[in-house]
Amino acid sequence: METYALEMKGITKEFPGVRALDNVTFSVRKGEIHALCGENGAGKSTLMKVLSGVYPYGTYDGQIFINGKEVQFKSIKESQDAGVAIIYQELALVGEMSVAENLFLNHDLMRTKIINWNKIYAEAQKWLDQIGLNIDPQTKVNQLTVGKQQLIEITKALTKKTDILILDEPTAALTESDVEILMKLLNDLRSNGVTCIYISHKLGEVMSLADTVTILRDGQTISTDPIDELTEDKIVTKMVGRELTELFPYEPHKISDENILEVRNYTSIDNTGKKNIDDVTFSLKKGEILGFSGLMGAGRSELFISLFGSFKGKHTGKVLIDGKETNIKKPADAIKEGLAYVSEDRKRYGLVLGMDITQNTTLAALHKVMKLNVIDQALEVKNADEITKRMKLKAPNLEAKVGQLSGGNQQKVVLSKWLMNDPKILILDEPTRGIDVGAKYEIYKIINELVEQGVGIVIISSELPEVLGMSDRILVMSEGKITGEFLREEATQEKIMMCATGGRKK
Amino acid sequence: MNKQPSTAEGVQSEKGLSFKFDLQSYTLIIALVLIAIIFGFFTGGEFLSSRNISNLFTQMSVIAVLAIGMTLVIVAGHIDLSVGSIVGLTGGIAAILQVWYDWNTFLVVIAAIVIGAVLGLWQGWWVAYRAVPAFIVTLGGMLIFRGILIGLSKGQTVAPMDESFKQIGNSYFPYVPGYILALVSIVLLVFFTAKNRQKRQGMGLLLASPMIDYGKIASYSFFILLATYMLNRYYGIPVPILIVVLFAIIFIFISSKTSFGRYVYAIGGNPEAAALSGINIKRNTLWVFIIMGALSGIAGLLLTSRLNAATVSAGNSYELDAIAACVIGGTSLMGGKGKIVGALIGALIMASIDNGMSMMNIGAYWQYIVKGLILIVAVWIDISSKK
Question: B200 touching A, CB under 8 A?
Answer without folding.
Answer: yes
